[in-house]
Amino acid sequence: MKTPPDRRDFLTSLGLGLGAAKLVATPHAIDRGSHTASTPSMLNLLGHSQVPQWTETQATEGAPQDTHASPWPIPACSWRHSLGDTPVTDPENKSPHNTRTRTKKGMPLGGIGAGNFMYNVAGSFGPWMMKPGRYEERFLWQAAFHFREEMPGKEVKLRTLATDDMLPGWKPLSQGDGDYYALFPRGWINYKVFETEVGLHFYSPIIKDNYRETSLPAACFLMKVRNPLSVPARVAVMFTFPNAPYTGPTALPQWIGLSGSNPPSTEESRAGLKNEVARDAAGKVTAIVMKADHPSNTPGTQGSEWCIATSAPATYVTSWDGGGEGTDIWDAFAAHGTLTNSALSADSSLPCGALAVEAEVPPQGEITIPFALTWFFPEVQFGEKTRWRRRYTEYYPTAEGQAFAIAKEALLHHQDWLKGIESWTQPIIDDPGTPDWLKQVGLNELYYNVFGSFWENGCITKPKKFGNRPGQHLAFVMESLEYRDAEALDVRHHYCRTNRDL
C-alpha cells in the first residue's frame, strides 16, 4: 500500500508548486488555497487507491481542543477556528488590501446571485457583497444574536454572541469563548461560557440541481440548547438586525480602472425606512419586516426589504435606536428575556428590529430555536446603469412583502433544505478514500461560487446580447476581489478546470 500524499505533495504533483502548497499549509484557510480539490476520486488518479481516512485530531491539527460539548453533530473534516481569533491589520499599511474584511471572514450566506454576506469567525455579520465587485467594507454592529441563561439560585448570564463589531452597550464574548466550524455550505459555533450546551447552526439552501432554493436570499440560524444538568434552565435568545443601508462595493483601488485616486461612491440611497411586525395567517411565524420607500431611492433600493423571523413563540420590538449604544434593546431583554411587543424608538435614523424567544429546558433535555434572515433587493444595477432582475425573481416576483414570504418558506422548510444540502455533501464527507483535509478544502473553496456571484432573470434596460434562449440565465463569479473581471480562466478557474478535466 502506498503512503497517502500530504497536502504539499498532492498539490505539487498536480503542478501547482510550492506557492500553492503554502496556501493550504494548514487546514485553517477557508478563504485561501487551492481550487483543485473538487472531486474525492482525484487521489485515485495519482495512484493512491487506498487512502485511510484522517482522524478528527489530524484534520484539526493546531486547533483548540473542546472544553464544552457541542449540541450539534459536526463533521470531523470541518474547518475549525477559535471564535474571535482574527489577525490584526497593520495600521501603517495604507494598501486597499489591508482591511478588516481581509482578515475577518467566514461562511457566506445567501443564494447564488442573491447578494451575500459572511457570518464570520468573530460571530458578526460581514463582510458583505450585495452585488459583484469588491467587499463592502462594513460589519453590521446592530446585527447579533444574544443569549440569556438563568439557573436556579445563580446570577443571570447574558452575552452578545460575538467578540467584536457590536454596539458599546452590549456585553461581548471574549476571544476563545467558542469554536467556529465551517464546511460549505454550513457553519456552526459552539459556545463555551454557559452552563448549558449552546450551539448555533447556520446555512443557506445551496442544493445540487435545485435552481430555485439555491437562488434565494435566505439564511437559516438554528440555536440548539442542551441541558446536561439535574435542574431546569431558563434560556432566551434575541436576534437583532438593522434596517441597513446599501453601500455597494467599497475600498476600490484606482488601478482597477476607476477614475483617479478618489473613485466615485457606489452607495445607493435607501431612505423612507419603516419597520413593522408581520405574522402569517396560521400564527406559526413572527417577523419584523424592515422596508424602504422614498422617491430618492434608486431602482436597486426602492421597495427593498430586510426580514428577521422565527417560527417559535416570540416577543418583539419593531424599532429600537440603531444609532445609539444599544442599551434600550439590551435593557429590555436583560430584565426577563422577553420584549415589549412595541417600538422603543419612533424617530431613529437607523431603526432596528428584534425578536426574542424564551423557553425552559428540562434536565437532560434540549430545544432548538429556528430563526431566518431574508432580504429582497430584486434588482442589481452596474456602473453603466444596466439593470438586471436577480434570479430569484422568477419564483418571487417584485412585490411588497416578499422578504416575509421567503422567511416563511425558510422556517417551514429548513429541515427539507438541510436534507437537500446533505444529499450532495454527505457522500463526500463519508467517503473513506479521501483524507479529511481534502474534503475540507474541496467543499469550503466552493464559497467562491456564492460570494461575489451574479445570476440573472432578465435585463431590464436593454436586450441581452447573450443567453437569449428560453429558460437561459446568465451567471458569473468574480475573477478575484482585486479585478472587475468575471470568469477569467487564467486566474479564477485555470487549475480548477484543468484538474476537473483530468
Task: Walk me through what this model shows.
The radius of gyration is 23 Å and the shape is globular. 18% of the residues lie in helices and 26% in strands. The chain has 10 helices and 21 strands. The chain has 502 residues and is α+β, with helices and mostly antiparallel strands. The strands form 4 sheets. A 9-stranded antiparallel beta sheet has the order 1-7-8-9-10-17-14-13-12. The protein has helices spanning 7-13, 17-23, 42-45, 56-59, 100-103, 211-214, 327-336, 402-430, 436-444, 489-501, and strands at residues 79-82, 106-109, 116-120, 125-129, 144-150, 157-160, 178-183, 186-191, 197-203, 218-226, 233-242, 273-279, 286-292, 305-310, 315-321, 351-361, 366-376, 379-381, 387-390, 453-459, 475-477. Strand 8 and strand 9 form a beta hairpin. It starts with 6 loop residues before the first helix and ends with a helix.
- C-alpha-based Rg, rounded: 23 Å
**Which strand order does the major sheet show?**
1-7-8-9-10-17-14-13-12
How many separate helices? 10
How many strands appear in the DSSP assignment? 21
Low-confidence stretches: 11-65, 253-260, 495-502
Q: How much helical structure, as a percent, in the residues?
A: 10-25%
Coarse shape: globular
Question: What would you call the structural class?
Answer: alpha+beta
What portion of residues belong to β-strands? 25-35%
The largest sheet, given as strand count, sense and whether it forms a barrel, is: 9 strands, antiparallel
Distance between the first and last residues' Cα? 23 Å
Mean pLDDT: 83
